[in-house]
Specification:
The protein has 450 residues and is of the alpha+beta class. It has two domains: 178 residues, 2-Layer Sandwich (Beta-Lactamase), CATH 3.30.450.40; 162 residues, Histidine kinase-like ATPase, C-terminal domain (Heat Shock Protein 90), CATH 3.30.565.10. It has eleven helices and 13 strands. Strands 3-2-1-6-5-4 form a six-stranded antiparallel β-sheet, sandwiched between helices. The chain has a five-stranded mixed β-sheet with strand order 8-10-11-13-12. β10 and β11 form a beta hairpin. α1 packs parallel to α6 and α2 packs antiparallel against α6. The termini are far apart.
Amino acid sequence: MSEDSPATLDQDATTHLLRQRERQLQAVVSVTRALQTRLQLDELIKYAVLTAMATMDADAGSLLLHDAERNKLIFRYVEGPAKDKITGLEIADTQGVAGDVFQTGRSRISQDVNQDRAHSTDIDQQSAYTTRSLITVPLQAGTGEVLGVIQVLNKHTGEFDASDLEVLEVLATQVAATILNAQLFEKAQVAVVVDLLGQMSHDIKNLLTPVALSGQTLRMMMNDFQAQVADELKKPTQSGTQLADTIDGVMQRIGADVDEIFNILEESTQIAVQRSREIADTVKGLSTAPAFELTDLNEIAQRVCRVLVFVAEKSGVTLIDDLHPLPASLLDPKRLYNVLYNLVNNAIGATPSGGVVTLRTSVKRLGEFPDGNCLQIDVVDTGCGMTAETAEKLFTGRVRSTKKGGTGLGTRVVKSVVDAHEGLLSVTSTVGAGTTITAKLPLRMEAGRE
């Protein structure tokens, strides 16, 4: 049997086919491993296109993703001589072979693009690259949704065949699943960011409310002052001394109130700035541990009431501070301020005009704490109350604010701070009668608490 006999040729063809299949199988395995280990979507897309080109001995390759809002196919990744000119280009999702494959969801081999009626020369003209042959496969996820197409162009030797199409379809399926997962993950991240932004907005809005109300009150007081001075100036019989005495009297009457308003403005602004820093730290993952120091809880309660009294008055609510003598205890004063602020502010929002909100502090005996003593904080309102189901979820991740623009962030802040102090939270509420929220914190007076 001669060297060129049919049997020998068949054996050579079989060997060639086996080697080709081996290369294709290695390509599939290689891409599969890459998809499992690489985290960046752009790297995965690049790796898949390069692997397909190498396996099929192709001159160029590209991956186009669909933009559903604009009905466009976008060249997300391109490899080959015209890479710089084509990457990022957009075409209609009905244009050319890519558009046809995207619309039908059917793979396609174009051995001679000049004989393919669907082929568009627009991209070749823009890139000065000549497409001769082409395989186009839809990026179809398991859901049936077509995310785009992947193409391999201009085989160096021979023609694209069915085995090339098969391997590209396998790669396309894997890439589509990865792209879909990445898109779902991106949407989830966006949802988290949107929720976080809503929470931050709600938190900062609450902290800045006293600033706005104090500013409004100050403006009204100054307008009244200016009106009184103008009235005095209109009196022709009034001497300079009498006018000065009148102005001095008015200033004395409003002086104390003006000082209080400026104190509230300064304190509220400082608290808002501090809270903004805490939020920024949390977003960056740099949230610090609680800083415990000997603290007068009543002093914090007084500051909170001083700031929120304007909010209460605007709502027609009476705010009462019922503060019993307390020993200093190891607490985080900044975070405890946030706790009291959120609880009292929420209580004011839940109480109709004419109602009362009381902030009460006391020392209690409680066997659940190491030395039996605890600091007890009660925020009592005469508001609308809540159902047992709502009360049970109040300090959990399942809470959803019923207030317009609310996010439930305030209650989560309260829970996290009380947990950091190893304290306890409880809610007692009656629909139509009001709510009492109680926080119990261990009374610790030993230095060195971490």
